[in-house]
Amino acid sequence: MSGWLIVVGLGPGAEAMVTPEVSATLAEATDVVGYIPYVARVPKRPGLTRHASDNRVERDRALHALEMAEAGQRVVVVSSGDPGVFAMAAAIFERVEEDAERWHDLDIRVLPGITAMLAASARAGAPLGHDFCAINLSDNLKPQALIERRLKLAAEADFAIALYNPRSKARPDALDAAFALLRETCGDERPVLFARAVSTPEEHLRIVSLPEACGEMADMRTIVIIGSSRTRMIPHAGRPILYTPRTTP
Fold first, then answer.
1. Most exposed residue of 48, 124, 160, 236, measured as fewest CB within 10 angstroms of its CB?
2. Given phi > 0 = left and psi -120 to 50 = alpha, else beta, which region is 123?
3. Sheet of 232-234: strands edge to edge?
4. How far apart, in Å, are the Cα atoms of 134 and each of 9, 45, 71, 141, 159?
5. d(CA 10, CA 215)
6. Can you give the residue range of the structural domain that contains 100?
């Protein structure tokens, strides 16, 4: 097969956070596939066709990309952040596994990007500086009971926790429910970072204690990071530094 399919991460928003490797790959592409706002981040140019679709049709999008690559096109599937973190790389491979023989010889690659949680952590300091986990609060692809179980176990293990997709119009109470569970499990005043639209002109960071945290402080452009019991703040000019020490008692 002469075509190829490469799944890339466009980073959290700023053009400067797109890796040179991803930029070079986009320059070679004949087709770009992805969720509408992510495809819009790729500039139009002669020889490039952009295929934008809704965020609830990942399976269809994955098959379309595979079929174009099979036909000889140079296809780039775009995600924000990193394509392997709650994004399109897994969706592509789910489709590949369903018909592994058909796609056996197709050139399929994944190029990493800067995740939203790592960009948010860097802006605040290093709240993910020790053991941490990432949990997607969306219940589109997994049951709510599983989300709650993972939140509780992560808190009991004293991980710092990064929450993706914390709140939406369809799930206005999801984040408040998560905070209630974490308050019951943790029982302390560990810091919570709300990092909205990091690396864009709309960037906004806010740090509150877990008892003060509420769902209205976030939207779907927000990454929420709940510190561990050892996460702390250092007073500093401009804004406090939030970090989790690597040493343990």
1. 236
2. alpha
3. 125-126, 241-243, 232-234
4. 17, 36, 37, 16, 10
5. 27
6. 4-114
User: 96, 114, 132: which is the final residue of a domain?
Assistant: 114
Beta strands in the chain (DSSP E): 4-9, 31-35, 49-53, 74-79, 107-111, 125-126, 132-136, 160-164, 191-196, 204-209, 222-226, 232-234, 241-243
User: Which pLDDT score is estimated for 1?
Assistant: 58
Contact 105, 66 (CB under 8 A): no
CATH number for the domain spanning 105: value is: 3.40.1010.10
pLDDT along the chain (249 residues), means of 10: 92 94 97 96 96 88 96 97 95 96 96 96 96 92 92 97 87 90 94 96 95 93 96 91 89
Short-list 186, 195, 125, CA closest to 154: 186
Asked if 152 and 51 sit in the same domain, the reply is no
The bridge status of strand 125-126 relative to strand 241-243 is parallel
Residue 127 identity? P
Residue 93 lies in a domain: yes
CATH number for the domain spanning 131: value is 3.30.950.10
Of the residues 114, 137, 169, the one at which a domain ends: 114
Give residue 77's pLDDT. Answer: 98
Residue 212 structure tokens:
């003060």
- Asked whether residue 107 falls in the same domain as residue 169, the answer is no
